[in-house]
Specification:
Keywords: Membrane, Transmembrane, Transmembrane helix. This is DUF2550 family protein. The protein is of the alpha+beta class. It has one helix spanning 14-43; strands at 48-56, 62-70, 78-85, 97-100, 117-122, 125-130, 135-139, 142-143, 146-152. Strands 1-2-3-4-7 form a five-stranded antiparallel beta sheet, with no helix packed on it. It has a four-stranded mixed beta sheet with strand order 5-6-9-8, with no helix packed on it.
Length: 155
């Protein structure tokens, strides 16, 4: 006969809760391993960086760098924007904007992230324009002492 609690509801067998605990622990370990592997791939420089544009600031001290960042089949190609000291190359994720196509339909031959542009309004203000369909992972309001204005392209 089955155990019944004081409320009249059958008691849950201990084995059931132990199975859920073990399943959750395994899932947590798999997620941690995936994060670790992804960070190691980035750290080792296995992601491909393709420069789209370098836009020098009016004072020539820094550049807005627009680039595609592709870490292979496990992630979608994304467009990044970073504010860097003049002449420096991006090595990892952008500090201003990270965006991809999300679930928007794209032509089969598209292997890069969305078209993004950057333009300086003065030495301390940058305007970044992205398409309205772009999925945004990061859009920072300032970086390296520069105020960032994020706009949507018409269309």
């Amino acid at each position: 006969m089955r155990d019944v609690s004081d409320t009249g509801v059958p008691a849950t067998p201990r084995r059931f809760s132990r199975r859920w605990f073990i399943a959750g622990l395994v899932l947590l370990l798999c997620a941690a391993a995936a994060v670790y592997v992804h960070r190691q791939v980035e750290r080792l420089g296995l992601c491909e960086v393709s420069l789209v544009s370098r836009v020098p600031s009016p004072d020539r001290e820094r550049e807005a760098v627009v680039y595609h960042y592709d870490c292979g089949a496990t992630s979608s190609a994304a467009t990044h924007v970073a504010v860097l000291p003049a002449g420096e190359l991006p090595r990892d994720a952008g500090d201003v904007l990270i965006t991809d196509h999300g679930h928007a339909p794209t032509p089969a031959w598209t292997t890069t992230g969305p078209d993004v542009t950057a333009a300086w309004t003065d030495a301390r203000h940058l305007r970044v324009t992205r398409p309205p369909h772009a999925r945004v992972f990061r859009a920072e309001p300032r970086s390296a002492g520069v105020e960032i204005e994020h706009l949507l392209a018409p269309g």
